[in-house]
Here is the input.
Amino acid sequence: MNYVQYPSIFYSIFEPIMAGNSFGQLFKLTTFGESHGPAIGGVIDGCPAGITLDLEAIQRELNRRKPGQSALVTQRKEPDEVVFYAGIFEGKTTGTPIGFAIHNTNQKSRDYAHIKDSYRPSHADKVYDDKYGFRDYRGGGRSSARETASRVVAGAIAKQFLKSIDIQAYVSAVGPIALTKDHSTLDFSLTETNPVRCPDPEKATEMEAYIRRIRKEGDTVGGVISCVIKNVPIGLGEPVFDKLHAELGKAMLSINAVKGFEYGSGFAGAQQKGSEHNDQFNADGTTKSNHSGGIQGGISNGMDIYFNVAFKPVATIMQSQTTLDNKGKMVEMQGKGRHDPCVVPRAVPIVEAMAALVLADLTLLNRGTRY
Amino acid sequence: MNYVQYPSIFYSIFEPIMAGNSFGQLFKLTTFGESHGPAIGGVIDGCPAGITLDLEAIQRELNRRKPGQSALVTQRKEPDEVVFYAGIFEGKTTGTPIGFAIHNTNQKSRDYAHIKDSYRPSHADKVYDDKYGFRDYRGGGRSSARETASRVVAGAIAKQFLKSIDIQAYVSAVGPIALTKDHSTLDFSLTETNPVRCPDPEKATEMEAYIRRIRKEGDTVGGVISCVIKNVPIGLGEPVFDKLHAELGKAMLSINAVKGFEYGSGFAGAQQKGSEHNDQFNADGTTKSNHSGGIQGGISNGMDIYFNVAFKPVATIMQSQTTLDNKGKMVEMQGKGRHDPCVVPRAVPIVEAMAALVLADLTLLNRGTRY
Amino acid sequence: MNYVQYPSIFYSIFEPIMAGNSFGQLFKLTTFGESHGPAIGGVIDGCPAGITLDLEAIQRELNRRKPGQSALVTQRKEPDEVVFYAGIFEGKTTGTPIGFAIHNTNQKSRDYAHIKDSYRPSHADKVYDDKYGFRDYRGGGRSSARETASRVVAGAIAKQFLKSIDIQAYVSAVGPIALTKDHSTLDFSLTETNPVRCPDPEKATEMEAYIRRIRKEGDTVGGVISCVIKNVPIGLGEPVFDKLHAELGKAMLSINAVKGFEYGSGFAGAQQKGSEHNDQFNADGTTKSNHSGGIQGGISNGMDIYFNVAFKPVATIMQSQTTLDNKGKMVEMQGKGRHDPCVVPRAVPIVEAMAALVLADLTLLNRGTRY
Amino acid sequence: MNYVQYPSIFYSIFEPIMAGNSFGQLFKLTTFGESHGPAIGGVIDGCPAGITLDLEAIQRELNRRKPGQSALVTQRKEPDEVVFYAGIFEGKTTGTPIGFAIHNTNQKSRDYAHIKDSYRPSHADKVYDDKYGFRDYRGGGRSSARETASRVVAGAIAKQFLKSIDIQAYVSAVGPIALTKDHSTLDFSLTETNPVRCPDPEKATEMEAYIRRIRKEGDTVGGVISCVIKNVPIGLGEPVFDKLHAELGKAMLSINAVKGFEYGSGFAGAQQKGSEHNDQFNADGTTKSNHSGGIQGGISNGMDIYFNVAFKPVATIMQSQTTLDNKGKMVEMQGKGRHDPCVVPRAVPIVEAMAALVLADLTLLNRGTRY
Here is the structure.
């Protein structure tokens, strides 16, 4: 066969596109925005009508994610104030799309020469140039984790829709320092009492000290966020391709810097025997153990859902690195700016937001549970 | 079976949602906004990277749709200026989502008492209350044709992507006054020379006079918009459910006030015999006649695409009508405000925009045409 | 920019695909099959659990569409028996996908030489070759209306889900012979009493005679199918892009040979004044007239939905035509085989099936209506 | 607000549906079928036209998954022969949907009394009853891993489309016995030389002995499958929600019994410092290390993709368990039938199939990569 793609009168169709800026099927978030463009924001399509929104609660979630909130995170100044353009009337959702924006107040001209023509190691700079032909290089453009602020807005609204479902994420490991307690023994009211967002105060102190040391070295470190979801009604999840845990997994893996996801017994469960791993029933339909992590065959069974999310260390380090430029030459690059030494404290509200979006969507897809 | 829908701990899932605020599969527009909210706008997801955008051309398309542009249309003042928040860098599309808004400058408090509690005949007021429980009643809220301004923005960008494809819509009938000439004999450079947007100057004059007379009567009138698309590459359209003409039909029927769609020979073709209607081939692959309207089996065949779109008369008339209020009582209602006596002149750019969105999406779905 | 599409190690991505073989968002039909392949069939995803299916009623719908059912239609022999592979257990739907097939019993080797290398006028032969590089030419392959048998199966199941919603399609015009009575005065119990499927017995006789005459001439003729839907709950339809009438329009325009769609007042409504066209309310929420066709702002208002669908004359005529072959030469082609002189009698169940699919899908998307 | 859901004339819309039986956006698989129904199968929509299919290679993939293939797996007899109904003509794909079925030859009446009314621990029996009201209990119905046979068929076709992309999955752990070698040092030609599908012959022998011992105990054990993908072009993946690794993660987590997914450095990477973890560039654009796992910012960078998938132990054990029945009583249940003591050997082709489906879909979404 001899295919030519298109007559020359036609605009080249072979320019690349970016798909995948929407999440969810019925409760659906579409985001837009580059790190240093005029604004980031999004549209929430499918939020039910008649929900009285607590706008301050939404802003509070954003504040948990924003830079400069503690000595442990980047000291950039971004107020991250959300404005709503549509979908809310007299304090309630109307059922129509909720349009919102977070305007960038911090757009002053900076020196981007070091990243304009060079590719930072373990960043998306080069693959963006490869795929799209050029990129908005200011602050990482679309590949910046700044995009996740829009997810936090939408997740905060999803939480208000989900009402009694209780979603609690927390930092369970920073580098080699990991929680050893089972999640059922943790007091989540302590999570927000320290800048690491770890509900075990002793471990939190250790983690904080570790992050401070790493930062002094001009280095960064990875970590793990765990999440526990209580009061989930039985029946959420579509049991073939869109299993509840498959949707949660995709949601978490779509967050910048995430390298792994496990739920329930997770990777440790792979080492167990069936006779150990099986969750035996109680007469009331609950189970004695919960290796299943609240999900059977992709469907919530009413027990607590819990999962872990692994984050790699931030790729921007304050050390000199030899790297590649866009002419194929090796160049020296020095980290600049104000970056997070460890991403997990600020990523806690993002994990909760993505979990809320998954549950809101599967709630709308669900149509009834027998009692 | 005995289903209860959800435990009472759970936010009622039976609050209604509004789906369907997105259009397109790969070149996808999502819109938000109510008539008198802070802003309307949208996100264009999937616009290819590297297109040098003519922003003034986009604003020009918006100006063709905006109120107050001539004596024939509503005299409301809405400047309809679009601002872009993302997806454009150094004058070119980056491939990332294009976020935009049109801020409402005209939000002054008005007297909506006459529509807040009463249902205007042949408007969506009552079904919105029925479906969503309440509504943003200001100026029709989400049901207002003001939403189509976002479509015009996206359509203008789609036109720039489609480049050489030439999309020409025009008014072909106003009430009983209809063009009789075949579209192939019309000079489309005349369309914008009169406020009716009819390329036949004599008919345009008649139509204009008719609209003025109707308006004096406090009445409104319907009309027809026709559209001709030239230079369409062979091969656009997915031949089962997403036929090119089915997508065009849905696109047009999604415009406020549209009652019908026909393409090629249309309803008249239903009266013909096969021996008359068949388009015989020329040796170069073109056809002698074009009853097919440029589409065979749902796929473009390279001939001109043409279609007609019927619009009902505007439902808001400046006459007193007896109607229903939300307590089930019959009340007297008097039309107020500044409304269009005939919607078709301002709807011409909307028809073009929706056609451009369909073609842009099917272009991205298409992967090759043999020559 | 200098894009190359892909490294040569990679299978050419520029081979074309066919998208759009699914219809619906939650109640979703995906079809497969070519006219003379081993089987056609499909998968219905999203059919609710617990519906006791009347399998004979499904087969009866298929029999209304099948060839050879009367002297007016093609005399091909295709028993069109559906077999179900999944999704039904102990007589009830399980909520899982319903997989089904209609095996082709009539696959005997035939002489396709006349269409293998030549392009029939006003058929999809040439655009398929243009778009896909080659085609299954046997009986039109995927472009054959045989695909619609799968739609009839799915539509018959949708009807059983929709229960009390009453969908009645009928032939309202054959060539120049058209019904003049308003649909509200017709007795639909007469539709199936004549081979034309026209509920006006006098007109049915005229139409039948006309079709017989046309067939004798070796010619074909177009027609119009009308459809009336009663007992539709208030609130179906998504009021922006996925308006109820936009979905109906797309559904109908996706049926082979359809050239136009209008609902309610349709194209005639474009000639009216607002003061005539507006549907005034009664105190019970119904309207005195129904120019709106049961739909306001894209949402059902509880009144009868009605619409018209225009079909072109069948392109295969029993006369000699000069046409193009795939070497670019003009050749003589003689119609062969057993074809319908007029497609509308057999298309009546297809129109009903597509209407049922639209309503089933919008029913699942709808989440509540206030009373 | 006072919502009632629907008038009583209407079929209850609150019957539940099962969504999510499709995978992929452009290269899309929809599956149907219950474990012991007449057939399982599916439709592949969007497979490019013109691919010469090796049907035997497809069957070979199915044979790698089928029961009874070795002494290590279930001894059930299911020949698992695929028949194709559409989408292939003269040995090549036509671009139209590929419909296929695997008929169940082993439908003889069995004694299901022990699972009809009782809920097996850590199986989906109870949540299916909860969500759908009843279930096809024969062999697990839709929740059975038998559904994955359809995925293997589609994945085998995706592999033929992807041509030079090389996807190699293998067993890297069975219970506590794990591979310690880096994937880059393994000889994948050895994977199929032992019934465990482990490319390290010594470990394979250990694993095999372990599985035999576990089976004798009437118990089961979990395991890990790893996968390495070579020759991936730069540019696959959509960098916000539909990141390449997020799609892979969802794909793997949608496979029955999967509990976790990690790619590149995975959970171990969360313990590292940025200075260790960053992948430094070589002058040719490759990287010195590959902690990124071939993916940067959600986009393939041309290096090898590798990931691990954790599987829980099979829940059906040949030991007596106390469990719940559907009347809320505790009952004794004895495992019956022929089940796998360890699922990972048969899951290797499923992991490869799902990986192939992800890559095929993202290949069609990708439109160009600069060189």
